[in-house]
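Field log, afternoon session.

UNIT: design team B
ACTIVITY: writing a sequence onto a fixed backbone
BACKBONE:
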């Protein structure tokens, strides 16, 4: 059994003159990322490996979130995650080392949302309903995969166990 965590970057700012990849987090994003880290730690789903897009907003999200996890998480920045479509994101998971039980991808929409939805055919009914409705910034989909090797991960085989958002953390 493997667990895939799909984390969309936290809320970013839109400063004039910045290229998309250089956009930093907005104040709300800087507040939400550490709270999501605390929620991950409380839920016992701390990843063994985090693959993080090279954009400024994804790196800042991870830098604020990771210290809240309670343990050092192996992290690798991946330029191929920037703006990646669903298939590319899935390929990153499929190439994860098999000693990794829980893998986190920190990347962007629409790829993250589409990948989460492709696995949201079974699992927690409330989580499925919410992921189908919207995948906001700093949202986290937790997918249980019935595989022993990452290379065998393929939708729809998997269960959407949790869908955490900043709004659900505030409830």
């Amino acid at each position: 059994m493997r667990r895939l965590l799909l984390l969309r970057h936290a809320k970013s700012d839109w400063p004039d003159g910045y290229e998309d990849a250089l956009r930093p987090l907005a104040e709300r994003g800087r507040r939400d990322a550490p709270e999501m880290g605390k929620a991950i730690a409380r839920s016992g789903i701390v990843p063994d490996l985090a693959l993080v897009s090279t954009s400024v907003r994804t790196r800042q999200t991870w830098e604020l979130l990771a210290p809240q996890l309670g343990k050092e998480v192996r992290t690798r920045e991946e330029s191929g995650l920037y703006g990646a479509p669903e298939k590319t994101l899935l390929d990153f998971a499929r190439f994860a080392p098999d000693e990794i039980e829980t893998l986190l991808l920190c990347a962007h929409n629409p790829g993250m949302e589409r990948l989460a939805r492709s696995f949201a055919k079974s699992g927690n009914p409330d989580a499925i309903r919410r992921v189908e409705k919207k995948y906001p910034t700093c949202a986290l989909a937790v997918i249980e995969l019935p595989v022993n090797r990452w290379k065998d991960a393929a939708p729809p085989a998997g269960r959407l166990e949790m869908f955490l958002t900043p709004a659900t953390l505030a409830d």
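LOG NOTE: The CA atoms of residues 13 and 26 lie 4 Å apart.
NEXT ACTIVITY: expression trials, pending approval
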